[in-house]
Amino acid sequence: MTTHRIATPLRDVLFWLAIALLVAGCVVVLRSDRAERSAGADRPDLQRVLDSAVTGRGRIAPGATAYVDGPNGTWRGAAGIADVRAGTPMQPDARMRLESVSKVFTATLILQLAQEGRLTLEDSVERWQPDLLPYGGELTIRQLLTMSSGLIDTNDVARRPAAYLARVKDAHLRGQLEAIVARAAADPTIEVSPRWWIKLAAWQPLRFAPGTPRATA
């Protein structure tokens, strides 16, 4: 990464760190100590795991792909559909969104900036993004990186959207958010600016005290 790329305003970096940690994604990992050498080899055991991710009451997505790399070779697989409307089957080489994998890249950039002395992990969100969150002064970069800030995530909202929207006391903003939720329910493929998640989160109480490990919250 070149120096001029690092020159991106630090407040923007912190904004995208908050976004990356607020918007939760899902990654399916299939582990095998004896992957076949041929990418097209038949591995019904791995395929069954992948199929279970897209079928039944516990499915997590309409389609999924997997790449398994082991000491004996590799395996690629796909299950479900790639296009809900057209019913197009998912392919092993399909291009996928990064989702939560983006956290790794964002965190790497943050740590590089800290190493260069341009920020510290104990800096508050308020320092770099004034007025972004009402409790921004309580949250540190370290807490965002370690997921111990107490911020809600999108999985929380998805389970009970009405409850979270009800906390938004700005009637105009609440109407905008309700319209977005309705459009997303009607068409899950629409793109929604991540800034709306921050606006919604700003009206929500923290799930636990900043600095508290999530496992004990």
Question: Could you give the topology of this structure?
Answer:
Layout: H1 3-6, H2 10-22, H3 44-52, E1 63-70, E2 73-83, E3 88-89, H4 102-115, H5 125-128, H6 141-145, H7 154-159, H8 161-166, H9 171-186, H10 195-201
Antiparallel strand pairs: 1-2, 2-3
Helix pairs in contact: 2-4
List keywords for this structure.
217 residues, alpha+beta, 10 helices, 3 strands, disordered N terminus
Outline the structure in words.
The protein has 217 residues and is of the alpha+beta class. The protein has a domain of 55 residues. It is 39% helix and 10% strand. The chain is built from 10 helices and 3 strands. A 3-stranded antiparallel sheet has the order 1-2-3. β2 and β3 form a beta hairpin. α2 runs antiparallel to α4. It is globular, with a radius of gyration of 20 Å. The chain starts with a helix and ends in a 16-residue tail after the last helix.
Summarize it.
The protein has 217 residues and is α+β, with helices and mostly antiparallel strands.
Class by alpha and beta content: alpha+beta
How much strand content do the residues show? 5-15%
Beta strands, count: 3
The number of helices is 10
How much is the average pLDDT?
80
Report strand order across the widest sheet. Answer: 1-2-3
Share of helical residues: 25-40%
Sequence stretches where pLDDT stays below 50 over 5 or more residues: 1-8, 23-29, 31-40
Q: What string, H for helix and E for strand, traces the elements in order?
A: HHHEEEHHHHHHH
Rg from alpha-carbon coordinates: 20 Å
